Amino acid sequence: MTAQDSATQSLAIAPEQPAPAPGARAADGAPSRSRSSRVSGSSRGGRSPRSSGTVLAGLGVLSFSFSFPATAWALSGFGPWTATGLRGVLAGLLAAVCLAAARVPVPERRHWPGLLVVSAGCVLGFPLLTTLALRTSSTAHSAVVIGVLPVATASIAALRTGRRPSRAFWGAALTGAAAVLTFTLMQSHGRPTLADLYLFAALLVCAAGYAEGGRISRELPGWQVIGWAVVAALPVTVLTTALALPAEPVHPGAKAVAGLAYTAVVSQFGGFVVWYRGMAAIGVPKASQLQLAQPLLTLVWSVLLLGEELPAAAPVTAVVVLVCIAVTQRARS
Predict the structure, then answer these.
(1) Which of 93, 97, 101, 121 is found 20 to 30 A from 172 (Cα to Cα)?
(2) What is the pLDDT of residues 197-228, one digit of tens each?
(3) In terms of C-beta density within 10 A (0-12 exposed, 13-18 middle, 19 or more buried), how is residue 142 classed?
(4) What CA–CA distance (Å, rounded) separates 236 from 230?
């Protein structure tokens, strides 16, 4: 949630009060806070911005946890390049309509380098690389990229912003990532494949996009960050679709269309709206650690939607991950 959103929400429920004169002091002799500083805090009986940010980031994780099963559905009727191109085109058109309807001005020049990083990492690189990986890898195995994504995102954010999370934060984050990695690698018997290389590359580009998007979301609303990112990628996604459609077989069944629609509307746009708002409110490192739960959620959807077998170690891993999430959310950063 951006500071602007928080202030607007608070103003909507707080009664109007006259602004204090410059330099005025409260009854206890302390300098009076300005109206802007009062409304930026949590309102009585309401949810604090940090709490709301955690909820929003959690909704983003929940949305993204369906992405791999939805991609697997899309691949049942579309080739990997076609699915990636169409996903980006549909998301870009949706974002363009939303931006035009809200009459959002073009971002300032200083924001565009970061927006292009989001576009390259989250709109182009990650969808294509994970789609290529899912041709030969199960959704359970592919979840390994999500297992180490939070640590990579927090690391890049720390390097980018200069902030240094505490040792407790890093200890819990690395423990959670190690638990998820151990669990997912055990399912694939520890044999690296070409899909692993795709997933590793996807991890790096997505972590950069997440970290940069979270940083920009402190100045721009989260939905505008991802909106402009998918719009900026339209020339590439349109060209990819135009070249891939004649070259790859297309069998648009119900599941394939549903999977493609989900990846375009939710995975590529809607999920990022709440995700980036959450990151802006609670910070990139803490928001990223909520993603430790994403591989386990993906495994559940893989069982329910794809008929894959749930490994017996999943409940144990879930407990470890939930404890790590609790620690990272309480650790100072």
Answers:
(1) 121
(2) 898 899 899 989 988 888 898 899 888 999 99
(3) buried
(4) 10
